[in-house]
Design brief:
It is built from 5 helices and 21 strands. It is mainly β.
Length: 333
Amino acid sequence: MKTHLIPLTLSLLLIAIGSFAQTKVSGVIKNQKGQVLSGAAIAIKDSYDGATSGKDGKFSFTTDEKGNKELITNLTGYEVNMQPISLNGTTIELTITLEEEATELNTVVVTAGTMEANDRSKMAQLKSLDIATTAGAEADIISALQTLPGTQAASSEQGLLVRGGAASETKMYFDGMLIKNPYLNDLPDIASRGRFSPFMFKGMSFSAGGYSAQYGQALSSALVLESKDLEPKTTTGVSIMSVGGGLVQTNKFKNSSLQVGGQYINLQPYYELVKQQAHWNYAPHSYSASANYKLKTGKTGMFKFYSEFSNGKLGLNYDNLEDLTHHFQTPTF
């Protein structure tokens, strides 16, 4: 009888060894606001082991894989998350945070007097990198928008012309607040850079022909800027342009983040290479500094503080002073 017990004992031993060789991976999927996400697909790269997050955002699965692997998390509307994990038979508990994905929406379709204009299809979604890599824009939000269909540079006034409207009819909103002065300087017939760096924002939505009453002060178009939430990590950024440069230091704390940066712009070298119709006796140059503090006050609450200082200098000669006077005349009715 003891002889018959040997195979059974060996089988149980092998099963036990196999169970100890497996690694259990579990955790919860959340967004940047701390809300749980259901329906996310979690899997180990180049394997069939994985799971899907439930209504409470939690997931759990076991795997026979060993060593250093990558855990991939996918969910529609969010960027793909890739996280390194070490599989050694020890239970792994994870909290995975997914970032929202800004995608370009379809073009507005105009047919027989009917224009599609709802909150999801009326905006063109732009990322910071889209602004920075637009040829000739020099990381300026307004200059990059001038390359979109239906827009043009304002030749006689500061701002952005959209579909034939005046530049003053295009309004910019910072986290829902109307920006009264979004430009660095104001000169007749001279293009002006925007006041804000595109890397402050997680997304920029520009109207493509229609928008809701929420932006009623915008008669021609609306540019909606949504600032980032807590910074994911401590970083140092250096930007170099043909007309200047900048430096940004970001510090990530437990429930808050602080970002301090500075920028210097000088158009004199550019104007030496590319001759201008305007007669400059002092080409535009400016320097600025900014501070951005964010504090997470709860699961869905966020306190944001932004402060900026800027200073600039320029000089322009006019051959005919009457032309300059004409620009600043106030019409009477």
